[in-house]
Specification:
This protein has one helix at residues 2-6; strands at residues 28-42, 48-59, 63-74, 83-93, 99-110, 118-130, 138-149, 154-166. By secondary structure, it is mainly β.
Length: 175
């Protein structure tokens, strides 16, 4: 797996923001700062790895919370291409009273300064409900971050998220 990462070159996001597409006209700005650990293990399907992420997050609309993601990492089919990432995740409030669910699509590529140990990543996020006040949550965001491998199949990462989120009946004309 590390060899696969080492053979890739960094790619840049397409510059477009799903943040501009949905959730911007109604709702509130959402931001997050996170620290997490991750694993990257064989899935049983050739060319696909199971990628799990667990961590703690300061989420502007939920406060301190935990985070869990289940992602599929698709190995590049050609040298120089990034891993393609797709999956789901959940933020859970510190007291357990509310959750916020997301769907993610993105990429990961070796950091050009240290391709054997560090990886840069980007996700486009779609809010897909939750529990409590977030049962009808909709909107979009972007996650950007980097990770460091601490072994062949595990590591730690830091990332930020920014976007817009709305729940039923919520309108905010601030942009």
């Amino acid at each position: 797996m590390t060899l696969g990462l080492a053979t890739l070159v960094a790619v840049q996001s397409n510059g477009g923001s799903r943040d501009d597409d949905r959730g911007r006209q109604h709702g509130h700005r959402i931001t997050a700062n996170a620290g997490s650990t991750f694993t990257l293990l064989p899935s049983g399907t050739p060319g696909v790895l199971n990628h799990t992420v667990d961590g703690v997050v300061q989420l502007s609309v939920l406060g301190n919370c935990t985070f869990h993601a289940d992602v599929k990492a698709y190995l590049p089919t050609e040298a120089g291409e990034p891993f393609v990432l797709t999956g789901t995740a959940t933020f859970t409030s510190a007291d357990g009273s509310a959750t916020l669910a997301i769907e993610v699509e993105g990429w990961a590529a070796p950091d050009p300064a240290n391709p054997g140990s560090f990886v840069d990543f980007h996700y486009d996020v779609t809010f897909s409900g939750g529990t409590g006040a977030f049962s009808t949550a909709r909107g979009s965001a972007e996650i950007d971050g980097f990770g460091m491998f601490t072994s062949e199949s595990a590591g730690k990462a830091t990332w930020t998220m920014r976007g817009h989120i709305a729940t039923a009946g919520q309108i905010d004309h601030q942009r």
